[in-house]
Design brief:
Blueprint lengths: L4 E12 L2 E12 L3 E5 L6 H8 L7 E6 L8 H7 E4 L11 H11 L4 H14 L15 H13 L5 E5 L7 H17 L3 E5 L3 H7 L2 E6 L2 E6 L1 H9 L8 H11 L1
Amino acid sequence: METETIIETTNLTKRYGHQTAVNGLNLKVKEGEIFGFLGPNGAGKTTTLLMLLGLSRPSKGHATVCGLNPLRMAREVKRHVGYLPENVGFYEDMDAVQSLEYVADLNGLKKVEAREKIDELLGLVGLKDQAGKKTAAFSRGMKQRLGVAEVLIKDPEVLFLDEPTLGLDPEGAIQLINLIQSLNEEKEITVLLSSHNLHQVQKMSHRVGIMIDGSLIAEGSIDSLAEEKFGVGEKEYSLEEIYMKYFQEA
């Protein structure tokens, strides 16, 4: 049975005056996959995420997320999608539990249900021992993991992660990568991952898309992209080598 498409864009375009941030994007992300969204700063990755969330209006084209149009049904889309931005913010006078209680309340969870969910999530992201610690004292890695717990409060079908390991030390990055993979494998959550760290993207992703100057210039599995650019051979190419080949020829 063919896997269903859970994110789809058709000619999705975003212009700011004479500047085109996203240019006619046609993209499909399948249910249950980790899709790596690659490209340099200014390529249009974050702008695309914002349009998929209904936080930015397309200039042309359309998108669907979980079968919903984000432009017309932004609130419904947000019920299905968890978004972890590049810089996660918290009220620094709250501890981890209070932060999650606040988000649970915003999402309409009853208190008993929220308490059980928060305890489960703190264990899942490895912060159970830090539950009563103020977020002001959290390291960046701890904040990222607490951010993941926040977006999981509503049991999303899809996660949008924008540079989730940026600024993390190697141990913190590995912990977060393992967490993302386990969420995908065990809870079957679809992940759209925007990152500059090609080694981490290669480790996690089932397929990748490469954006340059607002246009999607390549999409597919790492093996298929390597074959397209380098042909069939004995050598295995890294995602970094593949990416640079596309980037140089763009």
